[in-house]
Each structure stands twice: as structure tokens, then as C-alpha cells.
Amino acid sequence: MYLNSLIESDRRHLIHPVSAYRAHEARGATVLASAQGMYVTDQSGHELLDAFAGLWCVNVGYGQESIVSAAAEQMRRLPYATGYFSFASEPTIRLAERLADLSPEGLTRVYFTLGGSDAVDSAIRFIVHYFNATGRPAKKQMIALDKGYHGSSSTGAGLTGLPAFHRQFDLPRAWQHHIPAPYAYRSEVGADDAALIAQSVAQLRAKVEELGAENVAAFFAEPVQGSAGVLVPPRGWLKAMRDTCRELDILFVADEVITGFGRTGPLFACESEGVSPDLMTMAKGLTAGYAPMGAVLMSEAIYAGIADGPDNHLPIGHGFTYSGHPVSAAVGLEVLSLYLEGGILANGQERGGQLQAGLAGLLDHPLVGNVRSAGMLAGIELVCDKAAKTRFAGEIDISGKLSAAAYARGLIFRAFADGTIGLAPALSCSEADMGHLLERLRATLDDVLEDKAVRSAL
Ligand code: PMP
């Protein structure tokens, strides 16, 4: 009764992000009620192993009491402090210092946001400001990858390379451009890593040449493209793209909103190739979803370009009421200490090996065309014809079938519309829970294989 009225209320009033509104109303919400460790429980009492860490964010798992205490203590002492008018709070300063210490070499300055979208939007604004302030106002064109995701702000959504974020919103804007994603499984150069890297470099060069390097401000990329269906570029790709940007005199922005905080193994994915971007965006794992927060880090050169620009005596017209929120910052500090001192980062590295070994065993499944992974981040692409790599037709609604089957098996993952499964379990996952995750995943695939429409498409 109570649950029905909640669902009814949801139908009538709550607009859900990234959903087809009427289809959602018809389906009704799955109302989540509580969570502990790797498991969430919905209002009907059904327990689900969360293999997606909420939305790639709850990297330390649910129910971490030390985070709850840190937040409560900060709320009691000082629930809010603005960063305007030169005010600050201790946790915010300490978190900025810690992030500058931990992030790739050269990123010294930290601007806090509420999440990833406004971190990307802020990066865009800082870049525009930087080139205006340093006397190169023509440098305004920005390039990103097809299928990339850079958030849902009015500026970032145009750098996002997914049609669903452009349709209906008059995006991308004239200054936003895309080059193909390094998508080994569907690239004509296939598994030849060196050729794939050379191809991406050539595509970036060609785009910069077409626009004129004097007009190009920056190239944005996720080290692993999460929302694209977890596209993992070959080793060396990130460094090659970074070096190309330097050579072409354009800024390189690493969007580590998903890949940051141990998701791919190291604290930041850039570290695995010794890459130092000019700017880096982060969110999600920064507070592990316990409070909203994101950040954009920048190099000293960019900071100085802005700080010492011709209008340096005027306040910079960019800021949020909740920039550097002290409660989120206190949460972020505690989350960092769980990763580093608490051993969760190291645990994630070990569990990543277990995940990858388990997924390799899925390649013989009749539905599985491709498996790709980096640490605790994985994509499993389903096809109805392995030789031709054919995706299931839209009317089969493979993602709807996957989500329903996973729910019945007590599992949550991301089912992308194209039939790719996204996995991003908490880095705190135990060996036993990773075993359960892999078992439930195979059982889910077996169930979907039994579906009549799926069978007849094979
Ligand atoms: N960049 C990337 C790479 C992301 O994956 C996301 C979120 N999935 C964002 C930016 C936007 O972050 P948020 O949803 O916190 O605004």
C-alpha cells in the first residue's frame, strides 16, 4: 500500500534524469530504501548486489560509518561556509591541498564544484578565460571524442559525443567538434594497438589542421570512455594524445570523473601512463557518492594566465553557492583516507584482477561479442552474430531484458541501449562478493538467452 502510493507519487511529480518520461511513468520507479556494503535493498525488500556502485560513484561501498561521522561532525561545527569574499573552511582547504598532492604532477590549483557536469563546464569557462587573458582570443574551438561523455551542462553536453544529449538541445555548438573514439572492437584496424593509436593521433591532427591550430583551445578526453560503453583505449593512447596536444599547442583536459579514485587501478588513470594533463576534472569517487562534489584541477601556468590577466583587479564572474561545501569536503577527506590509509584502493586493484579473470570466462557465452576492462571498470558488448558483430535490433529491447533479468537475479549493472553491460563495482568489494557478482552475471545472461525474441535473433 505504502509502496504503491510512493510509486504513484513518483509518477505524478518526480522528473527522472536521462529517462523517457512517459515510459518511466508506465514502468514505475524501483524505490531504493537502504544499503550496506555491496548490497542495496528496495522498498519491496528485494536485495540487489550493486555492480555499478550507484552510478559509478560509491567506490567505498555503502554504510561506511566513518564517513557518516565526518559529515555529522562537520554539520554540527560548521555546516556551510561560502568561498566568496575570501572566506574558506578548514576541510575545503585541506582537501584542495590533498588533491594537489595526489593528482598528476603540475596540477596545483583546485576549483570545487557540485559534480562532474559543472566541473567540465568550469573547465570550459577557465579555458575561455585563459586564452582571452593571455591575448589569444581566437583560441576557442574545442574537440572531444565521439561517444564521449562530459556531463549534462549546456556547454559540456555539446562536448559529450552521444546523440541523446544533442538531439532536442541544438547541440553541439559551432565551437564543439568531435573525432572518432578509439573503439578497437569496431575499428577497421582492429586489435592492432599501434595502428589504433596512430589513427587517433592522425584524426586529432587532421581536425586541428581543419580548424587551424591558432583557433583550437583544447582537446577533452576520458582516459576510459565510460558512458560510451566502457571503451578502453590501448596502452599508450593517452600519452600519444597528450603529446600531440602539446605539440599542436592546445590544452589537454583529462575528464577523470569516472576513472578517478582507483576505478581503473591507480588513483588516477592518467598515472598509468605518466600523463599530466593541463586540466583535470573529477567527481563521483571524490566523495564516493556520500555527498555531492566535483573539482577541476589546473596547472600553475593556466592559473597564472588567468590570475595575472589584464582584468586581474576584477572578481572573476564564475562561482557557485556550494563551491567547496565544507560537509562535502569533510566527506571527501574521509573517503580519501579510506582509499589510501584504509586499503580500499589496494583492495580494488586485487579485485580488478578477479573481475577480469571472471569476465574472460564469459567470452564463450553465445551472447557475448566483446569484453573490455580496466581495473574495476568493465564493458561486455552483446551481439546476435559474433562473426559479423551485429547488435540486437532496437525492437528487441535487449537492455530492458537485461535489466529485468538482472533484477530478478539480484544484480544491478548498467544496461546500455546498444546491448553493452557496464560494470563498476565498489573497490571495497570482497572476494566472495565478486564471486557472487560473476555468478549472477552469468545467470542473467543465461536467462536472457532463454528469451524467445533473443533466441530467434541469434
Ligand atoms: N564526465 C564524465 C566522464 C562522466 O562520466 C560524468 C557523469 N557520468 C560527468 C562528466 C558528469 O558528472 P555529473 O553527473 O556528476 O554531473
Automatic annotation (TrEMBL):
<dbReference type="InterPro" id="IPR015421">
    <property type="entry name" value="PyrdxlP-dep_Trfase_major"/>
</dbReference>
<keyword id="KW-0032">Aminotransferase</keyword>
<dbReference type="InterPro" id="IPR015424">
    <property type="entry name" value="PyrdxlP-dep_Trfase"/>
</dbReference>
<keyword id="KW-0663">Pyridoxal phosphate</keyword>
<dbReference type="InterPro" id="IPR015422">
    <property type="entry name" value="PyrdxlP-dep_Trfase_small"/>
</dbReference>
<dbReference type="InterPro" id="IPR005814">
    <property type="entry name" value="Aminotrans_3"/>
</dbReference>
<dbReference type="Pfam" id="PF00202">
    <property type="entry name" value="Aminotran_3"/>
</dbReference>
<dbReference type="GO" id="GO:0008483">
    <property type="term" value="F:transaminase activity"/>
</dbReference>
<protein>
    <submittedName>
        <fullName>Aminotransferase class III-fold pyridoxal phosphate-dependent enzyme</fullName>
    </submittedName>
</protein>
<comment type="similarity">
    <text>Belongs to the class-III pyridoxal-phosphate-dependent aminotransferase family.</text>
</comment>
<keyword id="KW-0808">Transferase</keyword>
<dbReference type="InterPro" id="IPR049704">
    <property type="entry name" value="Aminotrans_3_PPA_site"/>
</dbReference>
